[in-house]
Amino acid sequence: MAEAATVARTVAPAAGDGLDERGVEFLRLTGVHAFYGESHILHGVDLTVHRGEVVTLLGRNGAGRTTTLKAILGLVGRRTGSIMINGRESVAMAPYEIARLGIGYCPEERGIFASLSCEENLLLPPVVGSGGMPLDEIYAMFPNLRERRASQGTRLSGGEQQMLAVARILRTGAKLLLLDEISEGLAPVIVAKLAATIRTLKAKGYTIVMVEQNFRFAAPLADRFYVMEHGRIVEGFAAGELGAKMGMLHDYLGV
Ligand SMILES: Nc1ncnc2c1ncn2[C@@H]1O[C@H](COP(=O)(O)OP(=O)(O)OP(=O)(O)O)[C@@H](O)[C@H]1O
Ligand SMILES: [Mg+2]
């Protein structure tokens, strides 16, 4: 393990910033198992995400969707199998090395620093990719954040905090974004803004993996869907097959 981590640290940074070569594989999980202590949570997850795609991970509460994102980032107790990111095997890497492969993670709990201003929160992240999104471009995408740039983190509304959490990972230069339930608990008008943001990011060439409970939010955005149950992927299909899969989704998710 220590030896593998050393090897990982000495290899050169990944070539390309992930915005070119749409359609090329960006992320591939093969037979991934994940554990929290003695708890065996993921039981052989296989999934693939291509550059420029929006992929949604659906499933009931406790299905293992958050754990899948955390396993990709190395934030679980232990993980086995293969996790290829931008053509590199990352399963033996430490979380900071994985982040440098160009992955941004927006956790469910958002992680906004309450004592810092909106803009200080934006300026905080370390750059992991080839150049983060400039503040001007971020403020063009999120005009509310420009208005609230001097406001303290705690003074922001839930919707503003969620916008900030998404905007902040763009500062890092990450081109593969893992978003955990970003629409949760937000008013419909804010959810609509987030949907527009996802479309803009896709148009800019970002690759997005969204964990969602809100099927109405995810359905029109995703190019492909995976359904999880009990730590396994039980279905994977493209947006064009959605109509034919509604019965199955109803059985698995109650949608
Ligand atoms: N830190 C942890 N230690 C032990 N078990 C955990 C831990 N975090 C999650 N689990 C368990 O792992 C399983 C999968 O949880 P996970 O958070 O991945 O689910 P999820 O699909 O994101 O659902 P939701 O977000 O609705 O809870 C659940 O049974 C959960 O209780
Ligand atoms: Mg979750």
Notable features of this structure?
single chain; 255 residues; alpha/beta; 6-stranded mixed sheet; 4-stranded antiparallel sheet; 10 helices; 10 strands; 34% helix; 26% strand; disordered N terminus; binds adenosine-5'-triphosphate; binds magnesium ion
Report on the structure:
Strand 1 and strand 2 form a beta hairpin. With 255 residues, the protein is an alpha/beta fold. It is globular and about 45 Å long. The strands form two sheets. It has a six-stranded mixed sheet, with helices on both faces. A four-stranded antiparallel sheet has the order 2-1-4-5, covered by helices on one side. The protein is built from ten helices and ten strands. The site of adenosine-5'-triphosphate has 11 residues, from strand 2 and helix 2.
As a whole number of angstroms, the C-alpha radius of gyration is: 18 Å
Bound molecules: adenosine-5'-triphosphate, magnesium ion
Structural class: alpha/beta
Give the biggest beta sheet. 6 strands, mixed
**Helix-strand string:** HEEEHEEHEHHHHEHEHEEH
The helix tally amounts to 10
In the predicted model, the low-confidence regions spanning at least 5 consecutive residues are 1-18
Principal-axes shape call? globular
The CA-CA distance between the termini, in Å, is 43 Å
Count of individual beta strands = 10
- Beta-sheet strand percentage? 25-35%
- Biggest sheet strand order reads 6-7-8-3-9-10
Q: Assign a percent range to the helix content.
A: 25-40%
Mean pLDDT: 90
